[in-house]
Amino acid sequence: MTDLRQLLGVDVPLIQAPMAGAQDSALALAVSSAGALGSLPCAMLDLQGLRSELTTLQQHGRPPINVNFFCHTPPAADEERQARWRESLSPYYRELGIETDPVHRGPARSPFNEQTLEVLREFRPAVVSFHFGLPSADLLAGLRSWNATILSSATTVEEAVWLEARGVHAIIAQGLEAGGHRGHFLSDDLTAQLSTFALIPQIARRVGIPVIGAGGIADRAGIAAALRLGAAGVLLGTTFLLCPEARTGPVYRAALKSDASRHTTLTNVFSGRPARGIVNRLIRERGPVSPLAPPFPLAAAAVAPLRAAAESRGSGDFTSLWAGQNASGSREISATALVRDLIR
Fold first, then answer.
1. Could you tell me which residues are beta bridge partners of residue 237?
2. Strand order of the sheet with strand 233-236?
3. In terms of CB atoms within 10 Å, which of 68, 206, 262, 270 comes out highest?
4. pLDDT recorded at residue 77
5. Residues paired with residue 173 on neighbouring β-strands, in sequence order
6. What CA–CA distance (Å, rounded) separates 319 from 308?
7. Domains, the chain, ranges and CATH?
8. Could you read off the pLDDT of 322-343 as tens digits, one per residue?
9. Distance of CA 142 to the CA centre of its chain
10. DSSP, res 102
């Protein structure tokens, strides 16, 4: 089997998870400078923003960086469902003095497409990863034209086998403990989701490519356990959220440092798709899983003004505080120092 370090062009088989909304190229560069693989989340960047971030990476000598994209199918607009969702949130609008804005679109989350590929052609990143499956065969062929290493997330053995059959170079085994959006794509049945240390060996036995463990891994002991179970490397996200290079906001950082970080759940009330985050007021009162929430990513539009208003008052009641089940490794030290400590 291919050595993961050789495949990714890194010194150590550790990947920083791409965390859209909580980081930019600064965190990715800091991680890569320590010999691991930094990641740039691109799903919330428009084409201009993507080109700007890739230019920044290029100006720093082009260390190996993983650029990450979503590849969901955008749902059809359903104004009636959107209206019901806004109505369910209307008490919060009144409480915070916000007028319901039916044209507010919230943060964009665009899937990987031909326009994105054309921007990447200019920079030819060495590693490209996907969440929610894979883009079309034609788009994958475009990435292979410059021999990009392709990664994608699997939450079940079936998804891992599907990804291997389509030529990915390594599989990220995303356990149920992982923070942020679930990467499932063959089925939305959450009862099929496995914990990280149950998922890693099952996938490793079924595929012939490197497996990267993700979810609940926060320290050297967790990394060692994942490797013993068959992982060729690990992916850590929550661990980096308190680093100064991350763009984690004040209320988010406060939540991560509080006892609240011990209480996480899967919820769809922020985006319309199950994602693990710290339990807050919106989750308690409208979730964790609400049948009223429009499909991903449409639910975010109605929540965005609530988040902005609450955060201006120092509250995280309506903020998507994405975090895994194990925030114990999060420390307020540089990402470079954190990586060096993890691999010591």
1. none
2. 14-16, 233-236, 211-214, 170-174, 149-154, 127-131, 65-70, 38-41
3. 270
4. 84
5. 154, 213
6. 8
7. 1-72+109-181+202-241+326-344 (3.20.20.70), 77-107+249-322 (no CATH)
8. 999 999 999 999 999 999 999 8
9. 23
10. T
